[in-house]
Amino acid sequence: MIMKINYILFAFILMCLTSACKKALDSAPDGKLSLDDVFSDPVKTGAFLNSCYANMPTKGTRYFFWSRGPVVWSDEAWDTDAEAESGLMAGRMYNGNASSGNHPVTNVSEDSGNGNYWARYWAAIRNCTIFISRVGDSPLGDIEKSRYKAEAHLLRAFYYAELLKWFGPSLPIQREPYQFDGDFSQTKRPGYYELVKFIMEDCDAAISSADLPWRITSAGEAGRVNKAMAEAVKSRMMLFAASPLNTGIVNHWEEAYEINKASLANLRANGYELYNKVNFPQTYLSDVAYLGPDKNVHSAVYNEYFTRTMEYSGSPVDKETIYQSRDGQGNIWNIDGIGAQDGYKSGTCPSQELVDAYETKDGQPVLDLANPYADEKHTQPNYNPANSLYDERDPYANRDPRFYASIYYNGSKRKALWGFSEEKESYENYPAAMGNRTRIIATYVGEPQTGIHPTTRKATRTGYFERKFLHPNSGNDNVVGGANWKFFRLGEVILNFAETALETNRLDEARQAINEIRLRAGMPELPLELNQEQLRLRLRNERRVELAMEEARYFDVRRWTQPGGDLSKTDKWITAMAITRNADGSYTYNRRPVRATERSNYTNKFLWVPIPLSEANRLKAVTGEEWQSAGW
After folding, report:
1. How many Å apart are CA 368 and CA 350, to the nearest integer?
2. Quick check: pTM over 0.85?
3. Are residues 108 and 480 in contact, defined by beta-carbon separation less than 8 angstroms?
4. What is the CATH number of domain 17-60+105-251?
5. What is the pLDDT of residue 354?
6. At what angle do helices 117-134 and 42-53 cross, to 10 degrees?
7. Which helix (H) or strand (E) holds 207?
8. Segments of the chain with pLDDT less than 50
9. What is the pLDDT of residue 17?
10. What kind and span of H or E run contains 579?
11. Cα 301 from Cα 101, distance rounded (Å)
12. pLDDT tens digits along 493-503
């Protein structure tokens, strides 16, 4: 029996821990059959496993009201909805409008599984735990039983990993289903490392199954998990466990290195490799793709990878993606690209801080990575004296190819359907009628369509627009929506391994891994003479660039912070490039904060999302222990 995880879904409400009722715990997914009935029937058993998948998030643009969530809550970008709709997620985060009783992450309306994580993920964990404990009683064949159980173990590991990333170590470990009449008074709050070990235990249970595949090769099984995902979860979570925020007094870097080394080797041995070839040159190397100067092949490779959904095949073009979402990302040109194209909103506007992270093509950082800004507001950059290619008067020339694949900047071009005629004040584009045409993306102050503006929804807040996930020519006349979200990919695992090698002073191995990523991007290898601290700065910057706007940065800046620290150096002030167009057609570039007041989501308590107040109170009442994160 081949299970299609979208096709059979039961209306099954399962509560977690103290909020469950006995009738619900003993009921089957339809609320009428008993669990004995479910696990005595192979079709119903498969349907119950579907309920374990039901709370998988879509991520990407599918946070509430078409937001990128953690991308725009970090120092990577600014959300245009923060001003246009200040009561939505980003506006509330920036203004510090969050409490344990009403937090924009935990209390926001759900959209494609994003939001309300505490309730959704605990319900999923309970379903997984019931399935693991009962599937042995099912009349399923041995192969199906083995694979299904492995999937449930891995799904439980994923949900725990997500909860741990967001909420920190405020999670009880659930190996067996909690019973309604159980004694919860002895439930203990485990440490971060203990939780990661439990997550890896589930991952290893999945990997040990001979019947769980390394890659999903049939579209009929789209969305099902695989062994490669288990390795990626182990890689990420052991890296997190060893990081300063989470490690405590014990150094876990050596263990993190060994686990990452093994996971990376296993992925490579089972056919995973970096996406390193332009497979659709008719699109990404065309005259109208505008992916970098002179049709840069490295820019084209990078943009092609992020704008295409991985196919399910035994020999896929994309061998880098380990696990992707089941759903697409919608019409990104309308809600997360250049807002003027369709007249609605721009969404994610990359920050000047992110732009500063892209090196020049000779491999030199633009800024002094140890001390990038001379002032708190990031308006006075400390330029790298060794960089001879960067020119403040022409700041977007000679940059890393990934820059051109990821960001629309002043002077870049896009060919697509533009839903307006040009005005005289659009000097670079006037005259031109509504239609499909090439347009210069001018972001200077006063440009009526794509210029920077403090409140207009379709404008840019920062002087930049997102293009990493945006097909080069998509629009209402070329409906190419955003590709399915890549939860895990080999590029991240390589950088995870590099960091563990670095922190265990295996500098040659770290450098070699980083250089593999840079080679794909068309960037020079790192210098051999870098010491550990210098290499650490380069590694962290490499993660920032390679994983830009993939939700990594939000969690990276947190795990690199000490438990008593805050995010004042990264997240307090976000800057824009305010550009003036001069009478002779030249431009003057001036940095300024996106808004005059600081963002408030940088303080210590924002290292974690709080447990919902009602749940924290229940846990404390039942166990006598404080589970809530500090500050909430």
Report:
1. 20
2. yes
3. no
4. 1.25.40.390
5. 98
6. 150
7. helix 192-207
8. 1-28
9. 33
10. strand 575-581
11. 45
12. 999 999 999 99
